Amino acid sequence: MLRSGYLWGVGKNVAILGATGAVGHELLHILAERNFPISELVLLASPRSAGSTLKFRGEEVAVQAVSKDAFAGVEFAFFSAGADRSLEWAPAANEAGAIVIDNSSAFRTHPEVPLVVPEINGEQLSARPKRVSVPNCTAILLTMVLHPIRALGKFDRVVVSTYQSASGGGASMMQALVDQTKAALAGEPPKASATFPPYAFNLFSHNTVIGADGFNGEESKVMTETRRILGLQDLSLMVTCVRVPVLRAHSESVVIDFAGEAPSVENIREALGSAPGVRLLDDRENNDFPTPLAASGGDDVLVGRIRRDPSRPNSIALFLAGDQLRKGAALNAVQIAERLL
Description:
The chain is of the alpha/beta class.
């Protein structure tokens, strides 16, 4: 078979399925930034994208239509093309000998497929599983902050409200926000898309299907996956997920009730300040706290607004922001691959 990948020398043979999407582009940037050892890179997408090229390490690499033969010789296959494509092509990639690192929801509830945030439960990769799931972006950001705090006391209940950006819906949603904002500023009335309400200058419940219990799909994912990542299956957790007109990076308001008296703000700051992948941004004097703009393009989850609830001695509130395309997706996937090396 004629390979459309580019050869760089000693390293691993790597494929990216969904290379032309927002997460696919970010994977390319992060693999280059972190000097991931790549011998051959194979970029895969739908037939309509075949023949286009993407730049990696200064070279133009052709995109080819995904097929069973495309995975021949591939050692690491990053999937970021949605759950349906993952279900369709993961068996072929595994059969070819590749480890599949999947950014979709396809395998997140499969008990035999590890759901991994390397800073939290990376030890699950020691058995070198053939498939690994990257968790939901919102759950990754949340657990990165909850994990170092839980060493200070047992959680009784966690309440989360999210402010989720367009990047969580991919390149098409980001473009929709840009287009709608331009139109609104030109005086045109905002229009709903086929899958979500008017976006410019608006907020709306996360555009996933509402279940019989009243929770949207994103809220259910965050609750289920947070418990699994932390290994706290009985954690009492309440989540409300909302889209906001921000291009990139998600934010979350978090209230943690402890089983006993809450740790001091100083101890929480100390725990978060020393946690890998977390950056404390909690400057009350200058009113400098996490924002989506500050988090965009960065690897760390920013956390601040740490304060006690004066009405509840066992309760702490905080605010976080993190780049959904990086730590919430592509960076976490590359860190998994690095750990597997």
